[in-house]
Design goal:
Chain lengths: ~220, ~230
């Protein structure tokens, strides 16, 4: 179900904007244009809002998320995280919200933002490893990093990693690998693990058909 | 019934150039018909290795072609390459984290491995056998190989379990610092529990669907055992 949008934009079509596989500009975390914004959205809703964000960007001929956009996103119900790829120059927004306070956060100093940045750094590292076409090495790196996060009790970061993986373009071997590595915490990771499993199933079903997808993900969902 | 076509000799791992995971089996004592199992794993750009619980606090990960076990054979798990890649990574993880960590124990109720490669023993478990080590590792990767609830107790297994306790006692006498008397006493209390045999675990891999029930695994396992002992 689409969220209630600014009436002036009703009827616009929406689509998820996939990442370019070799893009290095997915999250310019040191870029002053990067801002965190909170919203509560399912995947379908996210698709719509991402498109709207882009619409705003295009309308304003400006990559900077301006006050109008922030105000728009602040009106969204909040409690979840969605990671968006927006902007005509490849800039991105990473939206998050502190569950304790249903207010969109824009300060980069919040705990949530730190976790988000760590997750996105890890995601970019993992994607870079898989881009080298050495999946065994990439999985070993991922195991090391997830180990450390688990030792530190940072399951939030792992959740964000799963969501980033689910909402972007990764090869099937990476999706299956991440699902396998995080399988012992499937319950703790909850919806994030489920979201990635759904994404992996969609990708596998598209590439190999539903029967193979079921077989591939048996025991991981 | 001859040599099953799905039971492959060790040197055939060289012919496989994609990620795969298999159960490897060897006859370590022909007179006593003692078999030993482990996991053969091969990730992309990796060589095939055999990960096996050799004994109490002794996990080994060695090249299949240069392994210390005689005449290794293997049965490939029916996994798609992406899944095998992830499972092979878990095997490497377990090897890295557990060289001297995993105790020997007879009872198996569903223990597994966490993502960090450390063992998570189930209820009543105090360790693993070579066969239950394989089950636990596979479970850690989301593969339930056997329908444990369909297994029954076999009086033939009592002899084997008593032999194991005897071997642990002799090991303790020789290397008192490596295993405690208390642990041996605990293992002794487990005599009479359900046993999951190496040949059953190996044979189950060749089944069309997992998890495999006792009747199917035992039938396939018998073929493995006969073929292996005949080879030796």
């Amino acid at each position: 179900m689409a969220p209630s949008l600014d009436p002036s934009h009703e009827g616009e079509c929406a689509e998820i904007l996939p990442m370019q596989p070799n893009s290095t500009q997915w999250l310019p975390s040191t870029d002053p244009d990067t801002t965190t914004l909170g919203q509560h959205l399912g995947r379908e809703q996210a698709a719509t809002v991402i498109a709207r964000i882009r619409l705003y960007q295009k309308d304003s001929r400006d990559d900077r998320p301006d006050g109008r956009l922030r105000a728009f996103l602040r009106r969204r119900p909040t409690s979840d995280i969605v990671i968006c790829d927006v902007g005509v120059k490849g800039h991105s927004l990473a939206g998050h919200v502190d569950e304790q306070s249903p207010t969109a956060r824009t300060s980069p100093e919040t705990t949530g933002d730190k976790a988000l940045r760590e997750a996105l750094d890890l995601f970019n590292e993992v994607r870079g490893e898989f881009a080298k076409d050495m999946p065994a090495s990439a999985l070993d790196v991922l195991y090391d990093r997830v180990d450390r996060l688990q030792l530190l009790g940072e399951l939030d970061v792992i959740r964000l990693l799963l969501r980033a993986a689910a909402q972007n373009t990764l090869p099937l071997v990476a999706l299956v690998g991440i699902l396998t590595i995080t399988l012992p915490w499937r319950r703790e990771l909850g919806a994030a693990h489920h979201e990635l499993a759904c994404r992996a199933f969609d990708v596998a079903a598209t590439e190999r058909g539903k029967d193979e997808a079921v077989r591939l993900l048996d025991g991981l969902r | 019934m001859g040599h099953p076509e799905w039971l492959r000799p060790a040197n055939e791992v060289d012919k496989i150039d994609f990620p795969f995971v298999a159960v490897g089996i060897a006859a370590t004592n022909v007179d006593q018909k003692q078999l030993h199992v482990g996991l053969v794993h091969k990730g992309s750009q990796c060589s095939a290795e055999l990960l096996h619980l050799a004994w109490h606090h002794c996990l080994r990960n060695e090249s299949v072609l240069a392994a210390s076990l005689p005449r290794i054979h293997w049965v490939g798990l029916r996994l798609l390459p992406e899944r095998a890649e992830a499972l092979a990574a878990l095997c490497r993880r377990i090897a890295k984290r557990n060289a001297q960590e995993i105790a020997y124990g007879l009872v198996y109720t569903g223990g597994t491995f966490a993502a960090d490669g450390t063992v998570r023993l189930g209820d009543e478990e105090i360790g693993l056998t070579c066969a239950t080590f394989v089950l636990a590792a596979l479970k850690g990767g989301g593969v339930e190989l056997l329908q444990l609830e369909t297994w029954g107790k076999d009086c033939e297994d009592l002899n084997w379990q008593e032999q194991i306790v005897g071997q642990l006692q002799r090991y303790q006498e020789r290397y008192p610092s490596r295993i405690s008397e208390q642990h041996i006493a605990n293992v002794k209390q487990q005599i009479g529990c359900t046993r999951y045999k190496p040949d059953q675990v190996t044979g189950a891999c060749s089944a069309d669907n997992y998890p495999v029930d006792y009747a199917t695994a035992n039938c396939l396992g018998t073929r493995v055992k006969k073929a292996l002992l005949a080879v030796v």
